[in-house]
Write a sequence for this structure.
């Protein structure tokens, strides 16, 4: 019985190490979200930090509200793409095992 507990602890430590590696990999990842058929692009890291914003000059020919809407949509698109990539990476790590609701990994 003691051996099985030790084995479970080793497996848990190995999983923790893999999760740490996955978190580091996700943090370095850069994903682009866009809106307006590419008029506005937002580059975001896996930690949801915005690295770059690219705005087509034609956006400034429209009214301010149009530009603001495109920015919000591009940021939301980037967030959704980062979340999807994080979920996919964690699914690979956990072998497709569904996590309980509210247990969001890695962040």
């Amino acid at each position: 019985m003691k051996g099985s507990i030790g084995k479970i602890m080793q497996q848990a430590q190995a999983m923790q190490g893999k999760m740490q590696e996955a978190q580091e990999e996700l943090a370095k990842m850069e994903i682009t979200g866009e809106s307006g058929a590419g008029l506005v692009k937002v580059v975001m890291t896996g930690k949801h930090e915005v690295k770059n914003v690219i705005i087509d000059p034609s956006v400034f020919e429209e009214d301010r509200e149009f530009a603001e809407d495109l920015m919000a949509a591009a940021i939301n698109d980037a967030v959704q793409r980062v979340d999807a990539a994080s979920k996919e990476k964690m699914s690979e790590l956990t072998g497709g095992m569904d996590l309980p609701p509210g247990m969001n990994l890695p962040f």
User: Anything to note?
Assistant: The two ends are 35 Å apart (CA to CA). The first helix runs from residue 2 to 28.
